[in-house]
Amino acid sequence: MTTISIVTGGSRGLGRNTAISIARRGGDVIFTYRNEASQAQAVVAEIESLGRRAAALRLDVGDIAALPPFVDQVRTTLRSWGRERFDHLVNNAGHGEMASFAETSEAQFDQLFKVHVKGVFFLTQALLPLLADGGRIVNFSSGLTRVSYPGFSAYSAAKGAIEILTLYMAKELGSRGITANTIAPGAIETDFLGGAVRDTPEYNEALANMIALGRVGVPDDIGPAIASLLGPDNRWITAQRIEVSGGQNI
Known about the structure:
Helix 1 (13-24) packs across helix 8 (223-229) and helix 4 packs parallel to helix 5 (153-173). The relative contact order is 0.15. This protein has a seven-stranded parallel β-sheet, with helices on both faces. It is α/β, with parallel strands linked by helices and 250 residues long. The protein is globular and about 50 Å long. The model has no long low-confidence stretch (mean pLDDT 95). It is built from eight helices and seven strands. The chain has a single domain (4-244), classed as Rossmann fold (3-Layer(aba) Sandwich), CATH 3.40.50.720. Keywords: Oxidoreductase.
């Protein structure tokens, strides 16, 4: 049976690459977007060009009140595809904030935790009745939970919370055969922080010099890794933090 994956933040960056990588492996995809409707429809078209089904649903993952109607939309989409359950949940949606520990504001802190922690917690909880037994959960963390760079204290603390939350998901949902793992990308050329790694040659080169494979990552280094983790050969992997960084800071 064809798998159905839900990917949050799938209209751009690593979420987009993940959604398309899943489709290339034969899966159908429901993905969320927040504001980029035209980008989302372009992703739908690309997935459909691969012969797979796709649906783009608008969601701000930090808006907890929006979760019940979103779950209803997911249920309606599944039924239109002849299914009652989906197989994989990839919690990717998020944003970055760069500020020193001394200068991080309460608003910055709250927004990071609202999206990266509270949103992941309650979105996953809300979708559990629709997640098939034997399903998979992949949560996005960051290489910044293993090494520290000034300016990312709140962001990294939120991602550290996700790593612990993933362990509890793996333990408490294991009786249903559901696995839960964390993917931790290193430095990647995306629009994260306004495209700093992608668009600033000096920054890109400095990071590349810290990476064993000699370059920063690109989305095609991350999406296929997640799609592979969701495959049937990896059914016995759970409660793991899997860093995909090219050997950064080793």
